[in-house]
Design goal:
11 strands
Length: 407
Amino acid sequence: MNNPVKIILCVITLAAAAAGFLIVACNAGKKGSGNGSTKPPLYYVSNKTPPTPQPFKDKTASELVAEIKIGWNLGNTLDANDLPWLGANPSVSAMEMAWGNPVTTEENFRTLKDAGFNAIRIPVSWTKVTNSDYIIRNDWMDRATEIVNYAADNDMYVVINTHHDEDVFKFTNTQKEASLKAFEIIWGQIAANFRNYNEKLIFEGLNEPRVKGSPAEWSGGTALEYFIINEYHQLLVDTVRASGGNNDKRMLMVTTYAASAEQRAMDGLVVPKDTADKKIIVSIHAYSPYNFALNQSGSAVDTWSKNNASDTSDVRTPLDRAYDTFVSKGFPVIMGEFGAVDRDNEDARAEWAEYYVSYAKSKGIPCFWWDNGIYQRSSGEQFGILDRYDNFFPFPGIIDALMRGLE
């Protein structure tokens, strides 16, 4: 009878300066026929990461989420994808700036911290910088690590995810086997790289997992799609927990179909089994009311009032659903993305932002503003509230309103 195969994590320190580390997944046990056991994969770890596990405050997910006041998304930056105009093997800075934003600086995060934000979500597209075996470029991992460090060095909570990788991560039966393999390899690398960070670093497996172009893409998904997405979530947990360092107890964030706040999407999420106790957070996104916050068509509106019952109901409904479905049952929720586009209506946006954050706080749900860096400088969905070039807030009334909402 064959002995079971054991997976052992071995760390090899490279002597060359700036070469980082390699995590080697070693197969111990019976060798295969012929030339012996299969050659193990090598996972690069940036030398910008902590060399040993940092002190880790072992809290429940609910306890940690309660410490997040308000967050901000580094949008349209590391998540920029589909960049054929940059040619083959573009530089890291070219990709970071490809969607119109400058290279991120630590001063950006200091400005946010000084204003009252204590959490940063860093969306990252990884598959654009992988080879055919889904191995991530070293320089991209270095840059992602550097930006995480900007937040960590300022004692901020950090969420890092996979974002805009739907061209590889598929959610249909015919495509899921290859997609799950890619997902496991990519998260194996992310987990290995960031394994030594403290409890303030959170891993979010997927951004808005969905079948692109499907009839139910933005209306809550289907039962089969929920089943497949739940497989991804379980694989995230299993992969991270086996990766060493502090990852055996790290907070992990799972997402409803398309991060939808529809009730059926919430009902379709199965919280994955976990060897760690109470370490799972749920993420949803809600740009609501849609016609005020997001819509770019002719039915869009530029007014919102806390004295209008219809306006406030559209804000409360997704938050109430999230509370009833998850928070009340012991699973904390983060509003991973929210915001309202600029329609030359700062006063209305400020009134909306204060109400939104205040009501979310009453349900124990911290909110992360989606900031794509766009305001006045160009056309498009203008969610920008921080000028990253000169580190100032072009809409100070909105910043003040967000902070009042936390009181």
